[in-house]
Amino acid sequence: MKTLTGRLIISAVVWSVAALTVGGIVLSFAFRSYVLTDVDKRLELILDTLVGVSEVSPDGNFRFNQALVDQRFATPYSGWYWQVSEVGNEPLRSRSLWDFALDADHEERKFALRYSIVAGPDGQTLRLAEHDIILPEADRIFHYQVATDMAEVQRAIARFNWLLASALGLILLTVTLALVLQVRYGLQPLRKIERDLADVRAGRAEKLTGSDTLPDDLKPLVDEVNGLLEQNHKLVDRARTHVGNLAHALKTPLSIIQNSTEKLDGDTADLITVQTRRIRVHVDHHLKRARIAGGGTGPGLPAKERIDKLVKAVSVIAADKNLTMNVDCSPELLFDGEKEDFDEVMGNLVENAGKWAASRVAISVNRITDGVRRPMLEISVDDDGEGVAEDKRDGLFQRGHRLDEQVPGTGLGLAIVQDIVEMYGGTVQLVDGKLGGLGVLMMLPAK
What we know:
There is one protein chain. It contains eight helices and 14 strands. The chain is of the alpha+beta class. The chain has a five-stranded antiparallel β-sheet. About 3% of the residues have low confidence.
């Protein structure tokens, strides 16, 4: 489980299941012990009653001086039985035993009350209490046995276990629901922080707010994050200012050198002029990089409106090629960023596609929400030109790299595109185009 909520809930449920299982086992064992103890006490009471009404007649015969009125001992296989036996004589049995006799061991004397589980009539399992008694009227040992069928006891234990399992299951369900609510309530402040961070990243806010409503143990975290955001903002502004100052400081000397070399003749002058122009291109490139915002624009920028303007401009530039440029973009799709950055990116891509296309350019924009942390615009630009071999595509993102020196350009277009896209947390890659030429697949943040 990768989420903190899931981990907390699963760990709590696992411990709850373990605790309830142990508790259920203990309760089941305690109930079983209680039931068996109750059965044993009842057997002991009946055995004492039998001993109390027993006597030996003057002629030496064993008998009961009172009638046993319990109907259970008169009904065959009723589940309640007694038997009195002595060595050398037929045992005296309850009518409920019918033609079955309990096994009596006369070799090992049992003057202390003993309990055991034995086989009974009609396939019953009996709980047996037995005791050796010497009656005062005769110096003879009588072996008393009282037994009851365990089926009723086992049914009672089974019913209790079922009720116990149902109750524990209901408790587990209730506890789980309570844990889910508790975890969701407990993590609610973290979700607010997550939403605030998303607003900061999207440019809708500059720092985390509402720290007064957060728990005290989260306030230091919010303060540290806000401090980090403020420090990062200052560092970015400082770096952007330094790059801009450096670039502007270089532009004036470069202009002087360029103007001076244009008045000179010779190969050296031409070389200086070419290299000066290249330096100026790089200076302009870094000025653009210093200006990239990489943040949100509030309401968002209509992507179709900007693309249509760029397509119209490129169509005019490449009017001699009579290009067909199709745009598949819903008017509701919004770019979460600066207009200048979007125009810079799409302008380079559309211009390149129009430059290398034979007759067709296709641009499509879709909103992607599945599998991404924030909504993204998936933008593809395809042409029907000759394309670029896969092993040469990565080199197109290098500054100054050009496949054809005869075609006008600086070789910085895709490098600028990559810089801006990465500043916005997006991606850009070159793929096989849908029209047979080169395709560009790009992801930019959406509103």
